[in-house]
């Protein structure tokens, strides 16, 4: 009988905090920008420059810690993590090893196996390194220090996850909490949320953990899931063949669906940590914690309960809309203008989701404003345009955030609501189609649909289908 194996997974999640300036200097944290333009002597590690802690970084770290049920170290401090790498200008990174700001928390996740709590060992603040750009054309490496000194929190989980599904559920929950707090945009593709996966396997029932590897270079949930499955299979195959798993850092190549050894895994002593002599300890008062706690925004679970009570929309809609802070904000702001939650929910769930899928976009990439979606809904409600025209106009709103009122006016798309003119058109169409009258009289319902279609064609799609049906029935019943 073949052995059964269990996967044991812990995550180190790095999150870039949404501050305007860096953690220890006043340089901009804005993404992009020409190389080495968001820099100064502090974040490029010039001799004699001194770091000054950005208070906002502490507040955002506290907010994430409180939202993930962590204990707060009210006396915490910074340490130097010493290592040489070309994108690390000081030859050390300022981090927190001995007294991190948050510890012993956890969040509840839900998967097909049910609910469970994933423990959070600690959350610590640190600075990001620069970025190496490898120029294959000129066969050289260039360094950009724009990212150097960007504030990070590292969220270190306990090794509580047992499958890729649990890992994705944990990351998704974490990302939503942080986005709702406004602490980070958590864009994996831009590197503002990065996850390193620590994974080992052991026989089912074993009490000791196996030897773990750490996988880096994971920039999407799909890549993380594939990397977990790939590394699990690699370790099991190695053990089955009588080999040994080596504790090392590995790089995942998503195109080849393989991981490659990068370096042996360092332990804390390899970094020669010691307290940073240039930074004073951070003292966090009870009042400061109470103030942060009091200003915490409504998180997803609370929002879901409120939507059910306040808006009376389906639970599935609530789940999808609150699954993105951007969608939830769009929904609430649109409802505040047009006062019709069901219609707003329908436009988001059907047309918005369809176009997002067609254009392969995330909800965060929606560009249209709540004002323009509300205007479109009100145009339909007032029967100024019909449903088909509304869908056509919405595609323009989705693409370029155009003003639907102006667009309808300028393109002559307003519904023809002149009953007299519509009746005259219908009477003429009926007269021109005697066969359809016979079919209608003999109970063939398709005849009605044909005549409605002919009328819409004649009116260039600008008539109200409800009004057409009403008048057409009156005209036919009189014959």
Automatic annotation (TrEMBL):
Residues 329-476 form the Asn/Gln amidotransferase domain. It catalyses: L-aspartyl-tRNA(Asn) + L-glutamine + ATP + H2O = L-asparaginyl-tRNA(Asn) + L-glutamate + ADP + phosphate + 2 H(+); L-glutamyl-tRNA(Gln) + L-glutamine + ATP + H2O = L-glutaminyl-tRNA(Gln) + L-glutamate + ADP + phosphate + H(+). GO terms for molecular function: asparaginyl-tRNA synthase (glutamine-hydrolyzing) activity; ATP binding; glutaminyl-tRNA synthase (glutamine-hydrolyzing) activity; transferase activity. Coiled coil: none annotated. Signal peptide: none annotated. InterPro entries: Asn/Gln-tRNA_amidoTrfase_suB/E, Asn/Gln-tRNA_Trfase_suB/E_cat, Asn/Gln_amidotransferase, Asn/Gln_tRNA_amidoTrase-B-like, GatB, GatB_C_1, GatB_Yqey_C_2, Gln-tRNA_amidoTrfase_suB_CS. Keywords: ATP-binding, Ligase, Nucleotide-binding, Protein biosynthesis, Transferase. This is Aspartyl/glutamyl-tRNA(Asn/Gln) amidotransferase subunit B. Its EC number is 6.3.5.-. One of its GO terms (biological process) is translation. It comes from Anaeromicropila populeti. It is an enzyme of class 6 (ligase). Belongs to the GatB/GatE family. GatB subfamily. It comes from the Bacteria. Allows the formation of correctly charged Asn-tRNA(Asn) or Gln-tRNA(Gln) through the transamidation of misacylated Asp-tRNA(Asn) or Glu-tRNA(Gln) in organisms which lack either or both of asparaginyl-tRNA or glutaminyl-tRNA synthetases. The reaction takes place in the presence of glutamine and ATP through an activated phospho-Asp-tRNA(Asn) or phospho-Glu-tRNA(Gln).
């Amino acid at each position: 009988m073949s052995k059964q194996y269990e996967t044991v997974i812990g995550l180190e999640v790095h999150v870039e905090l949404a501050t305007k300036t860096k953690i220890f200097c006043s340089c901009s944290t804005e993404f992009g920008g020409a190389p080495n333009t968001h820099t100064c002597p502090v974040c490029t590690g010039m001799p004699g420059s001194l770091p000054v802690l950005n208070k906002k970084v502490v507040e955002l770290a506290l907010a994430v810690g409180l939202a993930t049920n962590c204990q707060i170290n009210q006396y915490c401090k910074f340490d130097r993590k010493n290592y040489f790498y070309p994108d690390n200008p000081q030859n050390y990174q300022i981090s927190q090893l001995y007294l991190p700001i948050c510890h012993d928390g956890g969040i509840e996740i839900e998967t097909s196996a049910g609910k469970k709590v994933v423990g959070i060992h600690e959350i610590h603040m640190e600075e990001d390194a620069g970025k190496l750009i490898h120029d294959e054309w000129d066969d050289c490496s260039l360094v950009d220090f724009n990212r150097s000194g960007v504030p990070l929190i590292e969220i270190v989980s306990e090794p509580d996850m047992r499958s890729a599904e649990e890992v994705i559920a944990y990351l998704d929950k974490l990302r939503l909490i942080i986005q709702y707090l406004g602490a980070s945009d958590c864009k994996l593709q831009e590197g503002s949320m990065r996850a390193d996966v620590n994974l080992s396997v052991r026989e089912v029932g074993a009490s000791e953990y196996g030897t773990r590897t750490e996988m880096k270079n994971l920039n999407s949930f799909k890549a993380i899931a594939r990397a977990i499955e790939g590394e699990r299979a690699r370790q099991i195959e190695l053990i089955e063949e009588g080999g040994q798993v080596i504790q090392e850092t590995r790089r995942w190549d998503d195109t080849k669906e393989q991981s490659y050894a990068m370096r042996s895994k360092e332990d804390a002593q390899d970094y020669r940590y010691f307290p940073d002599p240039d930074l004073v300890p951070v003292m966090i008062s009870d009042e400061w914690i109470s103030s942060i706690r009091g200003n915490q925004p409504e998180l997803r679970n609370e929002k879901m309960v409120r939507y059910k009570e306040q808006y009376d929309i389906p639970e599935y809609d609530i789940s999808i809309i609150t699954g993105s802070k951007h969608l939830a904000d769009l929904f609430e702001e649109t409802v505040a203008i047009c006062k019709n939650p069901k219609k707003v929910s329908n436009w988001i769930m059907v047309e918005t989701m369809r176009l997002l899928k067609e254009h392969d976009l995330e909800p965060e990439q929606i560009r249209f404003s709540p004002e323009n979606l509300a205007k479109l809904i009100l145009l339909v409600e007032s029967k100024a345009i019909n449903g088909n025209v509304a869908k056509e106009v919405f595609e323009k709103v989705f693409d370029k955030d155009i003003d639907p009122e102006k667009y309808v006016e300028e393109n002559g798309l307003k519904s023809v609501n002149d009953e007299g003119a519509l009746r005259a058109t219908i009477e003429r169409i009926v007269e021109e189609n005697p066969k359809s009258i016979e079919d209608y009289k003999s109970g063939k319902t398709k005849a009605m649909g044909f005549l409605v279609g002919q009328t819409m064609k004649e009116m260039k799609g600008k008539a109200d289908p409800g009004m057409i049906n009403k008048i057409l029935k009156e005209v036919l019943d009189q014959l």
